Amino acid sequence: MTALLERETAPAEAPEPSGRGGLAGPLLKVALLGTVAGLAVWAAFPLIAERAWPGLAVLLVATAGLFYLYVGPRHIPAKYLIPGTLFLIVFQLFPVAYTAATAFTNFSDGHRGDKQEAVVAIQTASVTRVPGSAEYALTVATTGDPATGALTFLVTDPASKVVSAGTPDGLKALPAGDVTVNAAGRVTAAAGYTLLNGGQASARSQEITDLAVPTPGGAIRSQGLSRAYEGKAGRAYDGGCDCIRDTTSGRTWTADERAGAFVAADGERLAQGWRVGVGLSNFTRLVTDSAVSGPFARTLVWNLIFALASTGGTFALGLGCALALHSPRVRGRALYRTLLVLPYAMPSFAMLLVWRDMFNTDFGLINNLFGLDVDWFGGAASARIAVILVQLWLGYPYMFLVATGALQAIPAELSEASRIDGASPWQSLRRVTLPLLLVALTPLLISSFAFNFNNFNAIYLTTDGAPFPADNPANGATDLLITYTYRLAFGGSGAQYGFAAAVSIFIFVIVAVISTVSFRRTRRQEEVYS
Amino acid sequence: MTKWLSRVGWRHGVALLALAFSLFPIVFVVSAALNPLGTLSSTAAVPTGASLGNFANLLSGTDFARWFGNSVLIAGVSAVASVFLSALAAYAFSRMRFRGRRVGLLALLLIQMFPQFLAIVAIFLMFSTITDLWPAIGFNRAWGLILLYLGGALGVNTWLMKGFFDTVPRELDESATMDGASHAQTFFRILLPLVAPILAVTGLLAFIGTINEFLIANVFLTDTGAKTLSVGMYGLVAGERDNNFGMFCAGTLLTAVPTVLVFQFLQRYIVDGLTAGAVKG
Amino acid sequence: MRIRSGVVVAALALALAASGCSGGGDDPETPASAAPAGGKLVIWGDDKRAAALKPFAEKFGQENGVTVEVQAISKDQQTTFVTASQQGSGPDVMVGAHDWIGNLVQNGAIDPVQLTAEQQQSLAPNAVKAVTFNGQIYGVPYATENLALIRNTKLAPAAPATIEDLVAQAKKLKADKKASELLCLQVGQNGDAYHAYPLFSSAGGYLFGTTAGGDYDKNDLGIAKPESIAAFKKIQALGEKGAGALKRSITVENSIATFTAGKCAYLVSGPWAITDAKKAKIAYDISPVPGFAGAKPAQPFLGVQSFYVAAKGKNKALAQEFVTNYVTTPELAVALYQAEPRPPVLTAAYDQVKGTDPDLAKFVEAGRNAVPLPAIPEMATVWDPFGKAESAVIGGADPKTALTAAAKTISGQISQ
């Protein structure tokens, strides 16, 4: 009695490995864990070299966690879930979290980096050549070791032919006897200096571009590896007033932390800005800006219709074909199946482009073949029909495949029984087959709905939202929320990622709510049948 | 005769209609691919004058062969790996009861619904660091892209598989356990072979999805030799207002070949016994 | 028993790892350290340029003892460049059109280049002006492109002086069944501002006003002004409800193909169309895009292809060397021309090749009145709404409504 009880509770814990085939398992485990450890070690070396201690800590904790999980006998579900979840977290959740965080910033063109980067960009962009200054020929050299020694610019003034050595301390003329100059004016040898070749100079690229030799008029900087010029920075950052000051005119632009830009007294902004947090302003813009929110509702309705029509239409077509070919009396079924599935095998983005060309009013295949003269993408209704037609073509083979398999899983006895009970084929289809199919396929239908709701390519590559009403070039009749967002965010003066992120969250909430509600309803169904 | 028509003939009719609908754009593509002039307006629905010139240009003038190899490698490896990861998770969801199981299932469905606008920026952020530290899995490397695609392994496919696992009776598990098998042995030796059809379907879907994926591959693979088919072919057609339509169609047809082959190979698994849920008696 | 097996497994695994330790240690690539002794330069461009650049890049590499990698971005070149640069994975040199400059500067993605007076004089002046932004030169131009009228000389032996002449000639050809389309000027469902601009400017329309200094003024939007509306009225007269010369069904995909198939006698396109015309063995001639009778001459946009130095590249010194000192040599300019026939900006190179290629001079002549594409960032807001207004008007919509709506969208975007 107790032995039986023991047996029944045994599955809750990992049982002892039996002798039969017992060695292969642990061996494999050892090999896999060893690979994990080896990978961790391989990954650790660059981290150590870079002194990336947080990264190294994460790596060690993760490896230790994996070892604990797979060596110990507990946490069995985790053993199966962790591999996939690990990838999910790193490559799917991280972008989602990043998007969510970006929605609260003004991340966009002109506001991509931080303030320091903006200051550097402004200063670099303001360096101009001192008028009338010499255009030097340059050779980069060093007084010590090519990899670490102090850098010197050996510059030749083309007018006076004087060679000077430039360092951060200033320019010093070199005696003519110490240097050899080639025909172009560049120094080819100099006493006490080692000239850097292309490779060595590349290794110290940053130092070379940073080096500025001070002169009375400004500073001598490199322009490549063979020329130098005397330049003056027109604008400089003044930490005292947290502003950019123009050195000639004295005009200032003060940092505006709320806007993430340098603004002058008269409102003029410098082009280079930086990213700042803006709280909820992206979301409020979505709701309050009438140009954005006005068409939103209409687009949402069409989006829903499109997703439903695509999912429902492909399902109906696919199911219809599957039912038609379901009888064993149809010969050549395998051939039919292979051919019917071909649209699904063709690369979708290529076929979308082909379909777009087929709908061309004057030259397209559809109008020419059927003798029509429909301006497909010129009218709202015809464009919508066209787009759904393309989706049907692309999607029904998949539904056909799935429905075929599902149909074969339904035991023939069920439909036979219903026929014996006197039901017509249509009734047995509706009352017996269809409910069973729907239970099985509902998760697929939900995910197909979600996919089509956000099916960017389907619209972008065919109509790109056309037709557009004459009074609103931003929102077209076939626009989905996602294509509309894309145009709003990336059609303006540069990409507006922060705003796009806010709209993404918005769209996601809509889709998630719809999916969750449908999911809840299928759960009830599942429990009825499983 | 009428009996045949009413019983079987109409089935053929439906199938033929569907076939016509399915195939006419493909016939158009074939026609363009074989058309020696290779431009859009010179192509009609039915092939006129056949020539393999476009195919020859494609293979010799571009890196098509390398793109093909890259695509097959990347799609193949990531399909197999994501099927495996998905199967592991599906087994856990189906057979085991743990906290957060229902939420986890729903989460899998929802995460992939998030519009991926900023995925590109996030990927650059992540992979810039990765390429600096571990170039072997960084930009322009097939392995980096494969790892990235594995992020999408858990999703709707896990759902499909879970449903399939649910149809395998628990008694099988229990009798195996009583014979002394561990959960891993049950999984690998008993369940996996039984769910082979769904593994085949998921593998095919993953393969097709990866071959078609374009946006991420475009920014990840910039070296011409490292590109996949979708990126390389987009460059052909979008490149500089040229009319490479014939070559583009030739490339499209060739791209479809691995998918059709995989489908043929997996057909016997897919059709025989593809149950997608709790339908078995 | 359980505990013991666990320990055994862990121990064996660690042993395996330890053996892998030595393997992991001598990883031949030490990416964290500085670039290998040879030095590396990374150049990005689109597919066509990358292919053309490869041999010269390699030559540069050999001369300087560095490795040069040329990579092609198939789509969204500008966005990918800016995004990658910001994260530190960008190239050292970027090849692109000059109208990117405003956006690249506001993102701090490119650095100005200092050309000597001598170098500036050796380049065509309108190209140098095109790459100047806020008083600084930001890129080194190497080729220009502009639209011209390419006509099938068998069908239309004489160049039309005005667009009305062209339409009259084309109608005659269509009536004689020698051509099926009047004019191959691409419009598409969503319009094409670049191709519409010559006619738009001839009829008096303008996009942005210019400041005293000659730069474009983003506050002076000309789209909804009466001159532009009048210009659109003229364009509408040529559209589907009018003469039928401008049609939305002629798109970027079929415009050139229709011409090379001999179905239309007149094509408005750029140097890229010539290769296809030659392949189809069409006898062609090039002339400037004709304007409206009694109006200003048509002003096509001038596009200048340039090399940029990435501000956040890893090897800026070498990038500057490549861009300012190597690209400006005649050999490279001629070689780039041979890979892709566009008029070179370097006057010496242009003189060298114009003798062998009569088309070049004609394109340059057609570009005599060309205006450089505005490089200000605000220009990006203009393309889409302007194109859609154009296509709406060609389809028969009211020009005033369409343009006012476009202007509203554009100014809304600019003020963001």
Describe this structure in words.
The complex is a heterotrimer of chains A (530), B (281) and C (416). Chain A contains 19 helices and 15 strands. With 530 residues, chain A is an alpha+beta fold. In chain A, strands 1, 2, 3, 4, 5, 8, 9, 10 and 11 form a 9-stranded antiparallel β-sheet that branches. In chain A, strands 12-13-14-15 form a 4-stranded antiparallel β-sheet, covered by helices on one side. In chain A, strands 6-7 form a two-stranded antiparallel sheet. The longest helix of chain A is centred in the last third of the chain and has 33 residues, at 497-529. Chain A starts with a helix and ends with a helix. With 281 residues, chain B is an all-alpha fold. Chain B folds into 2 domains: 1-51; 62-271, MetI-like fold (Orthogonal Bundle), CATH 1.10.3720. Helices cover 72% and strands 0% of the residues of chain B. In chain B, helix 1 runs antiparallel to helix 13, helix 3 crosses helix 7 and helix 8 crosses helix 9 (183-194). The two termini of chain B are 37 Å apart. Chain C has 2 domains: 40-145 and 303-372, 3-Layer(aba) Sandwich (D-Maltodextrin-Binding Protein, domain 2); 148-299 and 376-414, Periplasmic binding protein-like II (D-Maltodextrin-Binding Protein, domain 2), CATH 3.40.190.10. In chain C, strands 1, 2, 3, 6, 12 and 13 form a 6-stranded mixed β-sheet that branches. A 3-stranded antiparallel β-sheet of chain C has the order 10-7-11. By secondary structure, chain C is an alpha/beta fold. Chain C is globular, with a radius of gyration of 26 Å. Chain C contains 17 helices and 13 strands. The interface between A and B is large, with 113 and 108 residues.
